[in-house]
């Protein structure tokens, strides 16, 4: 997954002029502000901090935004699309970590992260999540049959939306000891793996630069090569949320958010 080394290339980039464009994977969508969540593993919580600020700054107007995301960023975009309260999502995650005794496991999240994320999404997403996301949220996955990046935006149920998120975040073997995830009969892996190798986000994920991309932007939180999949204690996670929130505040003060999303 991409980490902070992508920051100078993709995070909070100014969008190109918005226009209606056909998409090879997914539905045709009208012009609207776009927000993209980049990959980053546990760095999801930093992205969630950005979303928390955006929710407070823009409120109900976010309901008209288009969303995209890959891997951890798919979770970010899904929570944003469904107006999930970030603090409540954090509380739920910490409770599940305790219930599953994650801090007592010598191998941390390895092999169990998938089922915990599934349970977490099932609890924090509203019953109407599929309706809120259909034709509006594009989740990036890597098709193992063609190795092409595919964007999913048709969700028949909340369960299917959860499945799409887990397919997008599927690091082979790490989530559940399996080499791939299965979604609607096809095999997929993490939607940001190639981005990590290339060192930049794909054009499909950024909609050719039209979407505002959020991905970890804090040198103090640099996690190194494998830190993005390491378990963090609650204090560290809260710090990540606060850092993301503060970053969004700085973007707002610089006028970046208003240029992209308009005023309240």
TrEMBL record:
Write out the biased-composition intervals (Polar residues).
1-11
Q: Where is this region: Disordered?
A: 1-35
Domain PNPLA: from-to ranges: 35-203
Enzyme active site = 71 (nucleophile), 190 (proton acceptor)
Under Pfam families, the record lists:
Patatin
Q: Which SUPFAM superfamilies match?
A: FabD/lysophospholipase-like
Q: Name one GO cellular component term.
A: lipid droplet
Which stretch carries the motif GXSXG? 69-73
Q: Does the keyword Hydrolase apply?
A: yes
Q: Which UniProt keywords apply?
A: Hydrolase, Lipid degradation, Lipid metabolism
Stated family = Belongs to the patatin family.
Q: What is this protein called?
A: Patatin
